[in-house]
Amino acid sequence: MLFTSLGLSDPILKAIQETGYTKPTPIQAKAIPLVLEGKDVLAAAQTGTGKTAGFTLPLLERMVQAQKTQAKGKRQVKALILTPTRELAAQILENVQMYAKYLPYKSTVVFGGVNINKQINTLKQGVDILVATPGRLLDLASQKHVDLSKVEVLVLDEADRMLDMGFIHDMKKVVKLIPKKRQTLLFSATFSKEIKALAAGFQTNPSLVEVAAQNKTADRIDQLVHPVDKKRKKDLLVKLINDGQWKQVLVFTRTKHGANKLCEHLEQQGIKSAAIHGNKSQGARTKALANFKSNDVRVLVATDIAARGIDIDMLPHVVNFELPNVPEDYVHRIGRTGRAGREGEAVSLVCVDENDYLRGIERLISQKIKKEVVEGFEVDPSIKAEPINQGGGRGRRGGNQKPSGNRNNTNRNASSTDGEKKRSNSRNRNRKRSRNRQSSKEA
Ligand code: AMP
């Protein structure tokens, strides 16, 4: 199939041509015609499948078609794209602007962690397409800086992640501000029970689209486990980077503190690195990401939430310096490499404390990951498993306990300012009350 057979207008086709994409990815081939027909779509697509273009291209096309019959007036938000994190929101806006390059629409992004006034000013000037995280959007709406009453298309991207992060009430509030008669596109990594319930509340008779088997890791990612003692992980990482002459590596740690410490160590070893996590200001995060993308920084050390939404073309190496305590996060993490069908390598450094996490991951992906001991880094069999420190000083879990695999047990608070902070605190309190809290993850 070619993009030209999808019924997209010339300005959109021209923009696609400039990106260098030759043909639609499977999610695009399936979703674009349905969205063009005006249907609600519930899509399960992994990260890296090209889902952003899967909803943005037809959304733009529908705006082009609608414009032909609508009278010209003040710009109003016609399309709203909700996403869980700031990084993802910024990334989506970049994509929207790239695909809409030859169209007259204005788009912008709003998220917390940065000054609200600039966003208010941009909104005042009129916007057609708005990308937003829920907290900041609600702040702006409650202060009457944004009017959502003319929204025709609502996209909930990474809806599973928004649920995990406790955004359900915010999502419901946002939906109340949008006309009932609308098109709703819901994207999630998987069709979980919770996602189906969400779809039932927000969508009308949605068409289901699924491109990869649930929870299967992308085929083209080579996965490898290096068993290693915890204390020797950082030396092994330095060796892998140096011996393999890796130029661009995304490394995941479980905690913010761990990310900082590892970053310092790599710098001491002469490897240019930057850390990206929730304690860093938005400016610092954006700078770190930009430097990493431009190859000024060789290693980006990230926690799960901070890394969500990172989209770097041809990212060749992902390293799990520590395994995630939530198996699904492994799939998300390694989805950062091998994007849109390219080849990639995901290496996990696994110490004895993490063997249960590894088993949980292998169960989820229904696959045994190849193990390879690196010479000189053989595991000391006398070291016994110890409880794993999840960071954050609370909710610690013993390493000998089974990973729950319950994504709702994690603290995925990515919001950090203004009303978002209050809301997220209350979300956290509610969640704490309502569940048997075991683990806490920070980003
Ligand atoms: P996404 O899943 O939307 O985050 O997209 C993952 C990556 O795939 C991004 O780097 C896109 O630029 C890229 N991409 C999207 N559509 C295509 C396509 N049809 N062909 C090749 N790459 C694509």
Automatic annotation (TrEMBL):
Q: Which reaction does it catalyse?
A: ATP + H2O = ADP + phosphate + H(+)
BP terms from Gene Ontology:
response to temperature stimulus; ribosome assembly
Give every Helicase C-terminal domain span.
232-382
Q: By its UniProt entry, which SMART domains does this protein fall under?
A: DEXDc, HELICc
Sequence motif: Q motif, positions = 1-29
Give me the stretches of Low complexity compositional bias.
406-417
Q: What class of enzyme is it?
A: hydrolase
Q: Which InterPro entries match?
A: DEAD/DEAH_box_helicase_dom (IPR011545), DEAD/DEAH_RhlB (IPR044742), DEAD_box_RNA_helicase (IPR050079), Helicase_ATP-bd (IPR014001), Helicase_C-like (IPR001650), P-loop_NTPase (IPR027417), RNA-helicase_DEAD-box_CS (IPR000629), RNA_helicase_DEAD_Q_motif (IPR014014)
Coiled coil feature spans:
none
| Keywords for this protein | ATP-binding, Cytoplasm, Helicase, Hydrolase, Nucleotide-binding
Q: How does it assemble?
A: Homodimer. Interacts with RNase J (rnj), might be a member of a minimal RNA degradosome complex.
Q: What is this protein called?
A: DEAD-box ATP-dependent RNA helicase RhpA
Q: What is the lineage of its organism?
A: Bacteria, Pseudomonadati, Campylobacterota, Epsilonproteobacteria, Campylobacterales
